[in-house]
Specification:
about 40% helix, ten-stranded mixed sheet, 10 helices, alpha/beta, Rossmann fold, about 300 residues
Length: about 300
């Protein structure tokens, strides 16, 4: 998995949140001289019984398509990035995934609307569904912007501190390599984090072993060294690496660490889960997305 940005797709829903998508999309397109696709999918309401469009006249399609194109033109007026509108018809997540694959984009940028509580439990969010379906890197941004940045040629995006959470297996190497290349491109500090959800149980230790605190510290030191070893195997991209081992639930600790350290970006891998696992425990990536103290970049294992 290599970090490159030749083609970026921005999901446009025309809400206030899209302003942040434009900030990051245009900023990255200018910085990497990438082609920027602005996608809006016109979605008609569906009959809940038959799953068919309630209102699906061809003349209405054309009218809404033209209006969407005009809205994109208006929103992008004044930006000097190399961009083009992509207007489609259909369910937004399906259309974003389809166009991303057809156009072979290097990154998708979308906004999280920050649903919480009962609404999230019952319906989830579009961006969470997108992250589950997408096999390409997805950058998720939201309002309010903790690190709102101007996307202009004179003021490029700046990711000065990046946090990435990973396990200590060889499976983490591709994601670590990608994160290191991103950090090197932006001259950023890269903080490698591993969370221990269940520390060594004191009651299970033999009485003749070293004191409990020393055992815990020794384990954390070994894990910290393992993180740095994996990073050395992942990439030779020059970046300022820092490794930390924390105790607690991975998603919660990653989010709190990023917030406490005023991080500019979180990079995290997406693991595959069964439907039951998602229902009962969710995933670390989704837990981070629900708190997202800063923009979150989600990478697929595929």
């Amino acid at each position: 998995m290599r970090f490159k940005l030749d083609k970026i797709l921005c999901a446009a829903d025309f809400s206030a949140h899209f302003r942040q998508v434009m900030h990051y999309g245009v900023g990255l397109a200018l910085q990497f001289e990438a082609r920027l696709l602005i996608l809006h999918s016109v979605c008609f309401p569906h009959n809940p019984l038959y799953g068919t469009a309630v209102y699906n006249r061809s003349d209405e399609h054309k009218k809404l398509g033209r209006k969407a194109g005009e809205t994109v033109e208006k929103l992008m007026k004044g930006y000097s990035a190399n961009w083009e509108p992509v207007i489609t018809f259909g369910e937004p997540v399906e259309e974003i995934v389809r166009v991303a694959d057809e156009q072979d984009v290097d990154m998708v940028i979308a906004a999280s609307h920050g649903l919480s509580g009962l609404k999230r439990m019952l319906f989830g969010t579009v961006v969470e569904r997108l992250v589950r379906e997408m096999t390409r890197p997805v950058l998720v941004v939201r309002l309010p912007a903790h690190h709102e940045q101007s996307a202009s040629a004179e003021n490029k995006l700046c990711f000065g501190k990046i946090v990435t959470g990973c396990d200590v297996s060889a499976k983490a190497i591709p994601m670590l390599g990608y994160a290191m290349e991103v950090a090197a491109e932006f001259g950023a500090e890269l903080h490698l984090l591993h969370a221990i959800e269940r520390p060594v149980d004191k009651e299970l230790m033999d009485s003749d072993q070293a004191p409990y605190g020393e055992v815990q510290q020794a384990m954390q030191d070994r894990l910290r060294q393992k993180l740095l070893q994996l990073a050395a195997e992942a990439s030779d991209a020059p970046c300022d690496l820092k490794a930390a081992v924390l105790q607690g639930v991975p998603g919660e600790r990653l989010s709190s660490y990023a917030a406490e350290n005023a991080s500019d970006l979180i990079i995290i891998g997406k693991h595959q889960h069964t439907a039951i696992e998602k229902l009962l425990v969710g995933s670390t990536a989704e837990a981070v997305l629900r708190s997202d103290p800063c923009p979150v970049m989600v990478l697929s294992e595929k």
